Amino acid sequence: MRWLLSWILVSGIGLLGIIPGASAAPPAILVVGDSISTGYGVAVEEGWVAKLRTRLESRGYPHRVVNASVSGDTTSGGLARLPDALAAHEPAVVIIELGGNDGLRGQPLSAMADNLTAMVERARAAGARVLLLGLRLPPNYGPAYTERFADVYRKVAERTGVELVPQILDGVGERRDRMQEDGIHPNAAGHSRILDNVWPHLRSLLEGAGAAGRRPPSPAPAEGEP
Predict the structure, then answer these.
(1) Spatial contact of 109 and 72, defined as CB atoms under 8 Å apart
(2) Is 63 a catalytic residue?
């Protein structure tokens, strides 16, 4: 009887390793952004981040997407929130989509650059690859300021060597049929284009990290991808 009890105990300990709940969680992609990434003014499933989840699934990537974006947020707000998000989700990739509200509010561009640089460095220190999403302000802010604003992203990318999407609103901001009436936020069609702008850069990060655990893609094509 004693040997039987010992065998049961040893077998039970061995089974702990195959309990479904004990398996590792899928790698996370953390999106830290503002109202563009929260999908302001469109249905939840129409935002580019929601569309990203669908595309990853259709392409066989195991990653889960965590949207830590906050409407109206600035680079200083994102920097303040980032440590907790990194600790909570331990992301493999961090996508930073911030700065638009800094520009719209006339905040110092030097501070914006410092905040973005600090976010990149903290994400990397946590073991994540980083994708920086840049954008341009509406032309009514004047050519000199809009160019200096766009240059912030270029300089941060050069300083840190981070992967950069220079203008996520390329093919969106200049198209009234892809923007909401406020002229600032994209509509559903605009969000599809944003994902198409982001996807090649994100895919290169994911492939660079290796395709371990990638599932065979489903037969359905991803929406909007060329």
Answers:
(1) no
(2) no
